[in-house]
Structure formats: structure tokens, C-alpha cells
Amino acid sequence: MCGIVGYIGKRDAYPIIIKGLKRLEYRGYDSAGVALLNGGLKVYKKKGKVAELESHVGGSDISSNIGIGHTRWATHGEPNDINAHPHSSSDGKLAIIHNGIIENYQSLKTELEQKGYKFKSETDSEVIILLIEEIKKRNNCNLDEAVRLALNEVVGAYAILILSSDDDKQLIAARKGSPLVIGIGNGEFFVASDATPIIEYTNNVVYLDDYEIAVIRDGELNIKSIEDVPKTPFIHHLEMELESIEKGGFSHFMLKEIHEQPKSIRDCLRGRLIAKDNHLNLNGMYQYMNKFLNTDRVIFVACGTSWHAGLVAEYLFEDIARINVEVEYASEFRYRNPVIRENDVVVAISQSGETADTLAAIDLAKSKGATIFGVCNVVGSSISRASHAGAYIHAGPEIGVASTKAFTGQVTVLAMMAIILGLKKGTLSESRYRELLFELDSIPDKIQKILENTEPVKRIAETFQFAKNFLYLGRGYNFPVALEGALKLKEISYIHAEGYPAAEMKHGPIALIDEDMPVVFIATKDSSYEKIISNIQEVKARKGKVIAIVTEGEKDIHNMAEYVVEIPKTEDCLQPLLSVIPLQLLSYYVAIHRGCNVDQPRNLAKSVTVE
């Protein structure tokens, strides 16, 4: 979840590293630091955001052609100057930055302390660099060999970059369980947690695999395994454009990404859906179509917002394709000793494709013989490479910590999967298939219509900016949307919010309702419409404040709810793609009124790459 940047080449390293760290602040912003080789090893680090680091560096001599930088999301040790990265060896010659968690750090630390090493920080990361120092001394070996031997003793997840003052022409990188990308330029190399700091300089990248070590020296890249087996790097060409990671005139990345959803869904559908030709195709799915058609069960594994997309998929797959579905928190999946069979299909959903818990769930399912289908946004990510097949959502970079366009992209792909399976299995008639294709094709325009009139949502946000609690209620396809709406509000405004199936309100949450409780109903005109009206009446009878998301032209709820937001009509199974939009906007505008940092909410990071 921390952000890592490194550079080695002919340019001035510091500006490249600082710019890269700013682009990676969505991964962590508790503290930041850089290490440069300039007549010796110079380390600068500071609690706070990258701007604080820049002020701290001030007028120091920072000229160097090689350096590493880090922006931290704290795990071991509170955010402060000492725990900030980089960490140095005891002799001051080595520096390391690290993303991940070392599970056996305590035993390694004890061994090193017994050998006389003293630790300055509370972090697990410092253990790695002192272990490398000890092995290098003990074996009288080169630095890359010491790194390799040390990593054979380390248990856990890591992405690391290492510098040595003994060699200002060498940069070493390694990974296991945390992402690392190497950009290849003209006699220069850029290393980062993801491609966002790299694309300004090159589109050619190598994704480092687990248990691989990269040694960059004298303009050459060499990769080997921790078993010392040479590897041939595969160079990927990125399609990402620099403009996609800029704010583009919006106040925040989150607002930009909410407004990008008509485009991101069109990009997701492009080449896959041609409604007028009755054409719908997901190439990755067709490679394993027999698995999908013959399985008794599809298991969705995910975390956070992606788990909510999996809940929508449960309704889609059972309703349209009549396939038995289970939706699992990836963080609990492998610890529950789940029953997994060889004919199961496991669909792993992750925006980043690097979510550690989801990767662990994949490993378990693969070990039991299940087929893995990945639904990811980031091309070349770990989950996409660990899956047997998959589909990208093509939403483009999502920088805001609170996921928005990734959710609708995920639901779009999952809807396409369900529709294809429904037709193949015969549970969906040809006429109904055509109806759904045309309706899915219309979704981007309908989202655009919602985004063209945000005033009702702004007024609601201003009214309830001081609320202590929110309740979100929905039925059927809109129940997962209620969960997602509540999560968005919690994430960026810090207001306590809960999502429930509307019918469950009277089994407990109704006790919370009084004149100070805003209750958000996703009350679109669908098969549960009459039931949701009854739930609204129950809240009104207890003086709750009703905020309703309704279908255009609806009259009954207008007469009951204090606040109403209209959205276009669509098929029940596609409702989440529309009904979630006002909830994303509501969370954004409430957070703005409360003065919250929308793109970098406290305690959160974008990609959860630690378990």
C-alpha cells in the first residue's frame, strides 16, 4: 500500500522521484522520504505528505543520477520521521524502501540484536536492510547476492529498492506479493509500484514477478530468481496516456472519476458489445466457456467495493444464468477452510489487481484445482497474471482512494458475463437477450443525464453535512448499492453509515430511527417497488428523514420523501449502474462541506497490498 519510486540514468533523479511520489500518494501519505547517491548516501525523510518532504529538503544539495523514494501507509510503527522510509544499514552505506509486511520480522530482529545490531525504528522494513548488511559481511559477497540470500530467509510480502554508496551505478529491486514495475527508457530505468510515475517517460515496462530480483547496472537490466536462476524479461507496451492521471480541470480525482463513468463504461463495452448486430463477446471468457457452462457453482472473491460488485453479480448470475453463486470476502476465504472443488469457477474481482487478500484466495483456489477468472482494471497486474483467464474493465487509472468508476466497470463486465451465460445455457431467450444488449448499450448516456443535474444531490449534502449517522436501504439488485453508498460516505466524510436490505430494517436498525436520522432509500421502480414504499412508510412513521433515489416520473414517493433524486429508467438487473451515481455524488459533496480530504481520506490507501 506504500508507494515506491526509483530512478537510475543520466537525468537528475530527485525531481523525477518527487513527481512520482506525488502521483503515488493515493497509495499512502503518512510520511515520505528519498535516498540519493551524491558523494555518499544522503537520506531525507519526513512525517506527512510529499510536500512536507520537499520543504524539509529545502536548499540541500540533491544533485544525483540515482535515487529511491517512498510514500508510506503505516503498518509497523506509527507515522513519524524515524519510521519513515528509506531505512539505512548500521554502517550508513545501504538504503532500502519497502512496501509489504515481513511476517517473521520479530525472529529476524531478535537474531540481529543478538549479533549486536541496534534498531532505530519500529518498522519491519529495517530488519531487511540490516539482514542484508549482516549477510554481505558474513559471506563477503556482492550486494545482489546478499539481497538474494536475505530474501530466502524472509517470510511475508515485499517490494523493495536498494541503493549502496559503494556503487552509484547500481539499483536493486525485488518483489514478492507487492507490485513493482520497471520502466525501460533510453539508457535509463524507472521503477515504481505502478505505472503512473513512469508513463511520462516511457511506455515500455517490465512487470517483476514474485520471487524475482532485478539488478540494474551500467545501463543494463538483469533479472534472476531468488534461487539464482536467470530470467528473460518480457517488455509490455502501456496504452495509458499521461492525461489520464491528471485532474483535467476537476477539483478532485474522485469528482473527475465520477464524471468519467459514461466514457469508462463505453470503453468497457467497446469491441465487446454491438447491440444492433446482437453481438456480445468477452474473449477471455470464451476460452473457458465449458467450465462456466458445466460448473455447479461460481464463487466470487473480493474486498471492499469489489465485494459489493460481487454481490451484484450474485443477483445477475442467479437471475439471468441460473447458476449457483457464493460471494466471499477474500480476507476470510482462506482462513475458513472452504470447500473448493475442481469444477468450481472462482471469479476474483479487484480494481488494482494487486489486492493481497484476493491473491491469497486465488492461490488457495488454484491449489484445489478450481478455474480462476480475473476481473481487473490494471493491465499486467498480479491477479490478471495469476488467473487462468479474465476480462479487463478498461476504466483507466483510478487515482481517488474511494473507488467509483471501477465499481461500475466491474458491474458492467459482470453483467456481460451473466448475459452471455444466460444465452448459452438457454435461460435467456433471444428476444430478452436483445433487449438487455440495447439497454446495456444505453447506460453511458443515462449516466451522463444524471451527471448533468447534480443540484438535488448538492442540496441534500449541504443539509446533512453535520449528520452523525446515515442509513442506506435497498432491495434486490439495489441492496449491494445501499452497501456501496454507505461505504463511500464512511470512507471520505467519516460519518458513520450502514447499508441494509430494506426488509431487514425492522429486524433491528429501525430502533435507530428518529428525527435526526437521514435514511437513504434506493427506491427505483422495479419488482420490489411496492415493498420499498412500505419500508419508507415505516421510517416516516418514526419521523426519520427520507432521501429517495427514484425512477424518473415516479409520483408516489415524491409525496412521502423529504428529498428526491431522479434517475432514468432501466432494467432491474442494470439498476446498480445508475442508482450508485447519486450516492457517489452525495458522499463527495458531503465530504467537501465537511472539509475532508476527498482523494486521500485518513487511514486509507488505494491498493491494499498487505494482508
The total number of structural domains is 3
Please identify the structural class as seen in this structure. alpha/beta
Beta-strand residue percentage: 15-25%
The name of the CATH topology of the largest domain is Glutamine Phosphoribosylpyrophosphate, subunit 1, domain 1
Protein described:
- The chain has 611 residues and is an alpha/beta fold.
- It folds into three domains: 241 residues, Glutamine Phosphoribosylpyrophosphate, subunit 1, domain 1, CATH 3.60.20; 206 residues, Rossmann fold (3-Layer(aba) Sandwich), CATH 3.40.50.10490; 148 residues, Rossmann fold (3-Layer(aba) Sandwich), CATH 3.40.50.10490.
- Helices cover 35% and strands 23% of the residues.
- It has 19 helices and 27 strands.
- The strands form five sheets. It has an eight-stranded antiparallel sheet with strand order 3-2-4-1-10-9-11-15, with helices on one face. It has a seven-stranded antiparallel sheet with strand order 5-6-7-8-12-13-14, covered by helices on one side. The chain has a five-stranded parallel sheet with strand order 19-18-20-21-22, sandwiched between helices.
- Strand 2 and strand 3 form a beta hairpin.
- Helix 15 runs parallel beside helix 19.
- The longest helix has 22 residues.
- It is globular.
- The chain starts with a strand and ends in an 18-residue tail after the last helix.
- The mean pLDDT is 91.
Short description:
With 611 residues, this protein is α/β, with parallel strands linked by helices. It contains 19 helices and 27 strands.
Please tag this protein with its features.
Rossmann fold, 27 strands, eight-stranded antiparallel beta sheet, alpha/beta, 611 residues, globular, Glutamine Phosphoribosylpyrophosphate, subunit 1, domain 1, 23% strand, seven-stranded antiparallel beta sheet
